[in-house]
Every structure is written in structure tokens, then in C-alpha cells.
Recover the amino acids of this structure.
């Protein structure tokens, strides 16, 4: 979601996909006044040109958490999760049981309060403070 701030700005918005060239017709080409808000979905190419005077631009993005984000965060923050994700799995004749073992190992690692830590961190307004406290707890 975008807001123009104090002065006006010219917004030119294009369809998602490859970067637009000069021959691509924009979906929107208009001046956004200071009291207007523009919702711009992810992936839409856009150009913004300030009007006369200074310019203030505020962007708010809402990214819903995914399992991939959780696992990436957990891999960085929890050694047991990192170890479980770093297991090599060979998919030969005995590969299925090894893969099942690796998944079980990851499940156990995630069960050690990792998901609760992630939810607490995501709900925290002061994420940096949480991460610093978390690092201090691990060092103690």
C-alpha cells in the first residue's frame, strides 16, 4: 500500500511480468494527491515521479508467514533444526527410510519450542530486541 505523503506524485503502473519497455501501455498513469492511497499488489512494475517540492514515500508490506520462512528462520536460530536440515539423504534403495528418519529428526527439532519462539518473534513489535535477548539467552 502506498501513500503520497505531503506533495503529489505521478504513478505509472504496469502489469506483472517482465520489466516494461517504452512500448508497453501502463495500466495506470495518474497523479496521486497527498490524501490518496494506492494499493499496489506485489509484482506490479511501477514508476513514481515526485511533483514540485519535496517528497515523502511510505510503503507498507504484509507478508504472510510461510513454512519456508519459518524453516529459514529456525535454521538460522536453532542448531538442532540446522543439523536436521543439513542431513544428507540418499534416495537409493534405503533412501525412503533415511528420508523418513530425516523428517522425524526435523519434527523433533521443531518441537523443542522453535515454533513458539517464532510466533513470539513475529508477534513482537520489537523484533530486534527479541533477537538480542534470544542471543544473550543462548550465550548464558
Amino acid at each position: 500500500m502506498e501513500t503520497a505523503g505531503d506533495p503529489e506524485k505521478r504513478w505509472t503502473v504496469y502489469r506483472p511480468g517482465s520489466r516494461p519497455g517504452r512500448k508497453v501501455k501502463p495500466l495506470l498513469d495518474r497523479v496521486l494527491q497527498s490524501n490518496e492511497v494506492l494499493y499496489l499488489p506485489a509484482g506490479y512494475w511501477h514508476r513514481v515521479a515526485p511533483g514540485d517540492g519535496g517528497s515523502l514515500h511510505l510503503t507498507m508490506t504484509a507478508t504472510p508467514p510461510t513454512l519456508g520462512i519459518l524453516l529459514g528462520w529456525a535454521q538460522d536460530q536453532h542448531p538442532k533444526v540446522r543439523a536436521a536440515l543439513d542431513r544428507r539423504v540418499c534416495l537409493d534403495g534405503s533412501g525412503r527410510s533415511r528420508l523418513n528418519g530425516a523428517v522425524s529428526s526435523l519434527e523433533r527439532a521443531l518441537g523443542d519450542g522453535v515454533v513458539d519462539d517464532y510466533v513470539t518473534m513475529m508477534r513482537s513489535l520489537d523484533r530486534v530486541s527479541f533477537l538480542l535477548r534470544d542471543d544473550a539467552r543462548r550465550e548464558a
In short: Residues 67-139 form one domain.
